[in-house]
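User: Second chain of the day. Same drill as before.
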Amino acid sequence: MTKRVIGTILRACAALPAAAVLFCLGALVQPAAAGTIILEGSDAIGFHSNDSDGADLYKNQVWTAIGGSDPRPIAVIGAQPVAAGFITSSSHPIASFATVPAAGALSGYVALYFLAGGGCCLEDDTLPAGNEAAISAYLAAGGTVMIEDYTGGAAWDFAVGTGGAGNSNVAGFGGARPGPSCTDGELVTADGLSNGFTQPPALGCWTHQAYDMSFFGPLGFTHNFYDSDPAFAAANPGTGPYSSLLSSGLTVTGAPEPATLALLGLGLAGLAASRRRKQ
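Assistant: Same format as last time:
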């Protein structure tokens, strides 16, 4: 949102009755893009959630974050590594499907979670193939898409927008850059805490991939919920910093960014001063 647009909104709000001011200023805290895409460098849900209390804790935090108070189910799409039904939720109905078409109308789901191949340890590029239009429409309508063990494959370029350069900016297992193929060295960030995540216990292997934020940030992926193990940056001097849970937007549990809140506060102060001058 440009300064000119912000100024226009503030001037328009100033002319409204006091009761309508906050509603008007809500235009300043709308997300930049309709939908949210989350890149996940972990297979804690797809592989570990059937045998680890720590993974189950993280799994339920994910479902709560991407589902919020919306009663619609979350669609888990992809081949599950064990008997169907082990991926459950403490907050939302979970509907499991092997493919996107099997899920039917995507508008019926609060979020789409794409499993890694067999639950571990690389993104499943067969899932978006041929379904790009349906997934794009879902995102355009404000939906949330989370990709497990994203490795920057071209199959997801229509949504992530890397222009074919995604894999070359991913470190670790399946990425073009070196790094640990399996680590428990991730650290939850303040952004992660504000979006409902807590530091996960060691699983023996939590992180496979790390994403160079200097590359993905300009593409709109500005919310880092987990710092990657420092070993990823050490293996790639002069690059990074790296994230292992990177989002293009706040989850439904997240609060507005501090900068946006500060702007809103300044706007309210300016409106109050303007009204005092008019009295």
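Residues 14 and 271 are 6 Å apart (CA to CA).

User: Great, on to the next one.
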